[in-house]
Structure to design on (233 residues):
């Protein structure tokens, strides 16, 4: 498993345990959490929807890019799909390396690329009863408003 | 001599997220005379009333990303990908 989708809570401790290695001096993990507000509005929960086949293909490409570009030992990532409550882990990225610097750099690369390239969408459910697909709301004809 | 009939292609469309909600369906088979995915998006956008301009979408054909000017072939599975927001 290099990159995968999960419809159940991400087993963070299990993932970390699976990457422990005596030839690595550092491990960096990023967790994206469900936050209770966005753009000034109170958020109650989120829903992630994925185009699963392509999300996994593109996610694994990103992992391989990180392995090619950074001198790291291992890198893995899991992204949630489905309904998530506040404080749940939406995405997890873990990187192990001989030295910490490369692990930080690779972790940043992977999460940034996942957010911009992998076909996963986030729907926010607000406290005022409205919902919104993040990043899709201002993509109508008014290009200047994007 | 009359011009040749435009070639009709049978394609399968899958919809996700905001486009799935706007279309009211997750997938459909349709016949189209569009020759590129860009032309097909124009056709679908008009029919379904999508307000997402083509500048904001990416397209997948048969499970991988393609450019908007990619030619359509009979049997293609096309997905129009609205702006992604993982993480």
């Amino acid at each position: 498993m290099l990159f995968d989708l999960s419809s159940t809570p991400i087993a963070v401790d299990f993932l970390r345990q699976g990457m422990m290695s005596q030839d690595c001096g550092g491990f960096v993990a990023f967790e994206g959490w469900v936050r209770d507000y966005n753009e000034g509005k109170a958020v109650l929960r989120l829903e992630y929807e994925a185009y699963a086949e392509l999300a996994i293909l593109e996610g694994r490409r990103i992992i391989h890019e990180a392995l090619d570009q950074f001198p790291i030992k291992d890198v893995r990532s899991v992204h949630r799909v489905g309904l998530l409550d506040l404080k749940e882990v939406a995405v997890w990225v873990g990187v192990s390396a001989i030295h910490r610097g490369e692990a930080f750099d690779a972790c940043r690369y992977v999460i940034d690329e996942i957010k911009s390239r992998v076909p996963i969408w986030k729907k926010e459910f607000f406290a005022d009863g409205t919902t919104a697909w993040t990043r899709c709301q201002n993509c109508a004809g008014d290009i200047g408003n994007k | 001599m009359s011009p040749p009939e435009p070639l009709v292609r049978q394609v399968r469309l899958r919809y996700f997220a905001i486009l799935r909600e706007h279309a009211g369906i997750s997938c459909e088979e349709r016949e189209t005379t569009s020759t590129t995915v860009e032309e097909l998006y124009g056709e679908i956008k008009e029919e379904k009333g999508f307000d997402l301009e083509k500048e904001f979408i990416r397209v997948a054909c048969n499970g991988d990303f393609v450019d908007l000017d990619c030619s359509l072939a009979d049997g293609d599975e096309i997905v129009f990908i609205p702006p992604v927001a993982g993480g």
